[in-house]
Amino acid sequence: MAPVDVDTSPFLWQLSTNGAEITRDLANRSIITRIKKQEEGYTFREYLEGDLLAQVKSRHSAYLGAVFAVVRAWLEAGSPRSAECRHDFREWVQVMDWIIQNIFKMPPLLDGHKEEQARTANPRLQWLRDVAFAVSSSKMLDRELSATELCTVAEDAGLDLPGNPKSREEPQQRAGKIFRLLFGESDGNPIKVDGFTITRSITTIYDNGGSDKRFYTFSAHP
After folding, report:
1. Residue 129 is part of which domain span?
2. What integer is the mean pLDDT of 98-112?
């Protein structure tokens, strides 16, 4: 079959996943949107039509009209753009950033986005994110945890360590190396990933001549 060119300009690709791992090039071309779940037991609003999906289906014309109203407001303002330059697709991002800040009165569109791009292109950061959620589910936030304790949390949550699955090293040794690499990349500064901040502390243990032991604290941030 002879090769053909396909015009992809009319298409927008969307992917939903709990833990995507993509190339850095694809991450740089993506807009990553996080869907944050409500707390367990949260009661969602009920509408006359039923749940939110039923209400949107019933009043789809009103919701679509709201989208058109936003576009009209942007056009009437002169089709402005912000000075945002933290993404490869600058024109689209600058338009959306202006709309987000000036019409919806919300923070800049790409605040925190670089961190999300880095995470999706880094299996170690992806693993750290999953561990953070497991720590939160285990009610162990804001506690100093060793690599051994974190391996137990990860194992209980069914999380595999990134890297060679046939490694003969103990899991805590592999986890320790992952943390050393991650904090090396951050120059020792706290790491922020998907709503969590991970800090490292070093304590000297005076057994067997004294040695440094590293602990990791996971905290949730707004």
Report:
1. 122-220
2. 91
Residue identified by tokens 């923070």 is 107
Q: How many structural domains compose the chain? A: 2
Q: Are residues 133 and 70 in the same domain?
A: no
HSE, CB side, 13 Å, CA atoms: give it for residue 152: 6
Two structure tokens written together for 105: 């009165």
Tokens 């015009």 found at: 7
For the record, the structure tokens of 210 come out as 């004294």
Q: Pick the more confident residue, 166 or 47.
A: 47
Helix/strand/coil for 19: coil
* Average of per-residue pLDDT across 108-120: 77
Whole-model pTM: value is: 0.63
Residue 92, CA distances (Å) to 29, 83, 176 in order: 11, 12, 41
8 A C-beta contact, residue 100 and residue 120: no
Inter-CA distances, 112 with 11, 170, 193, Å? 26, 34, 9
Q: Is 172 left (phi over 0), alpha (psi -120 to 50) or beta?
A: alpha
Tell me the pairing of strands 191-193 and 196-205: antiparallel
